[in-house]
Write a structure and sequence with these properties.
alpha/beta; Rossmann fold; Dihydrodipicolinate Reductase, domain 2; nine-stranded mixed beta sheet; six-stranded parallel beta sheet; 29% strand
Length: 336
């Protein structure tokens, strides 16, 4: 994405905690940060240190009554709906961290409200802005991998352990967003299982399996109770295979597939070739995308509609999780 050199729209960041501080830093570096809202004294002190000279307030009304064009929401997940709704009602363009809401129905309400008001609604699926993921999606869509067969992702670590949402809603939205982007479709069936080992009724580990009507299968393994950190995304095609390791910062294309010879499957092995990609920080690219969307009113990559699709899969996975791994079918996608 080309860097914008003229004056950018001003934004307010709501929440300067674990993730919000990164948004404060990026919008500050882009000279677009006008206001920070943080309810805690500790958070306000952090905001003052991060963005010297920027106004810091404690009450949301100060944001709604300000002249900022956009609002960036980095509050706990259970508050996303109410805060985003208030921002849209105040006439502000909205960038809300994932998930958009904690139910499809509430997410749909936000999408419809933004459409009625003619406002941008963007969701923080930051990995969709990762240059390596952009290259991976390009490889899949160009036919370089052949017919997509199977996708899997592992997002594993020890902590950060949340109490307001489970691991499925905390970690899996990133991988589900990429899978839906790669396949260009919604799954027919979702199956999820997992376990709650640290807190009652808050799963720490889940595995979600997706089946698509074109035969593609995908699984997403997420955990915050794991001895080492792993963030790996693998795509298996009929002609080639690709793997992105976000810890090692490597995207590798493998010239490998399986042939059928005389009725027998025969692995055809080839070398892996590292694919170069720009070193741009994904979060900065995401922040730039929000500012560009405000300026142009063009739909951003991770708009409300794409977030609704992720919510539908999350909600189905949650239902399966609560019924000990029962299959949950997704009907045809409803129009927003």
């Amino acid at each position: 994405m080309a860097r914008v050199t003229h004056a950018l729209p001003s934004v307010a960041v709501i929440g300067c905690g674990y993730w919000g501080k990164n948004l404060v830093r990026n919008f500050g570096e882009l000279s677009a940060l006008a206001l920070i809202c943080e309810s805690s004294e500790q958070g306000r002190q952090r905001a003052v240190e991060l963005a010297r000279g920027c106004e810091v307030v404690a009450e949301l009304d100060a944001v709604w009554n300000s002249a900022v064009a956009g609002v960036v929401i980095a509050t706990p997940a259970e508050t996303h709906f109410e805060v985003a709704k208030s921002a849209l009602e105040a006439g502000k363009h909205v960038f809300v961290e994932k998930p958009l809401a904690l139910s499809y129905e509430r997410g749909l309400e936000l999408v419809k409200l933004a459409e009625r008001r003619g406002l941008i609604l963007m969701v923080g699926h930051v990995l969709e802005y990762h240059p390596a993921i952009s290259r991976l999606v390009g490889l899949a869509r160009s036919g370089e991998l052949g017919k997509l067969c199977y996708i899997y992702s592992n997002r594993l670590s020890l902590g950060k352990i949340r109490r307001e949402e489970n691991i499925l809603w905390s970690f899996a939205p990133h991988d589900l967003a990429i899978i839906l982007r790669l396949t260009g479709a919604m799954p027919l069936q979702v199956v999820a299982c997992g376990g709650s080992y640290l807190q009652a009724n808050i799963p720490d580990v889940t595995i979600t399996n997706l089946l698509f009507d074109n035969g593609i299968r995908a699984h997403v393994h997420v955990s915050w109770l794991h001895p080492f950190k792993e963030q790996r995304f693998v795509v298996i095609g009929s002609e080639k295979m690709a793997s992105f390791d976000d810890i090692a910062k490597k995207l590798v294309l493998y010239d490998q597939h399986v042939d059928i010879r005389n009725g027998e499957p025969v692995p055809v092995k080839g070398d892996g070739r590292e694919i170069e990609f720009p070193a741009d920080e994904p979060l900065k690219l995401e922040c730039e995308a929000f500012l560009k969307a405000i300026e142009t009113l063009e739909t951003p990559l991770t708009d409300g509609i794409s977030a609704l699709r992720v919510l539908r899969v999350l909600q189905a996975a949650q239902r399966s999780l609560m019924t000990n791994g029962n299959q949950v079918g997704l009907p045809e996608e409803r129009a927003a």
